[in-house]
Amino acid sequence: xxxxxxxxxxxxxxxxxxxxxxxxxxxxxxxxxxxxxxxxxxxxxxxxxxxxxxxxxxxxxxxxxxxxxxxxxxxxxxxxxxxxxxxxxxxxxxxxxxxxxxxxxxxxxxxxxxxxxxxxxxxxxxxxxxxxxxxxxxxxxxxxxxxxxxxxxxxxxxxxxxxxxxxxxxxxxxxxxxxxxx
Length: 182
Hints:
By secondary structure, the protein is an alpha+beta fold. The protein has helices spanning 11-21, 66-69, 72-79, 112-123, 168-179, and strands at 87-89, 92-96, 104-110, 129-130, 137-140, 144-149, 152-160. It is built from five helices and seven strands.
């Protein structure tokens, strides 16, 4: 025979419910609210902010501005669609497709990040086709172009949902353009 408490509820259900509520009893006590954590320290490696939080262009010694290497118009030609305005962060520049689609993104990396990207592509065994006559060294993969002039590396990565073979000629064009601007 099943035991029931008031209202016809099963006692085991009441016991389980009570066990779940007991640990919560200490959550709303009279203890003072915790002091918010201090903000993280300012990263001295970040470029100084300009008006409205936009990065200030860096000096020539720091290297070329990634967004100056590939314009919005050139990024749109590469992606084959309209893109949002550039978002520069340190030695990178990203143009993204509108949220309404189609999926598209162009990323420009300058310096060590560009070289590291190339090294990762090599270590993964991705096909890298050399481009002769472009800077000191240049390669194109199914999704990116890599250019080296005077020891300065630049990578341009293209994200699209298409046949990668369609991207080779546009990536080669952007590699030649970038090589002339490094």
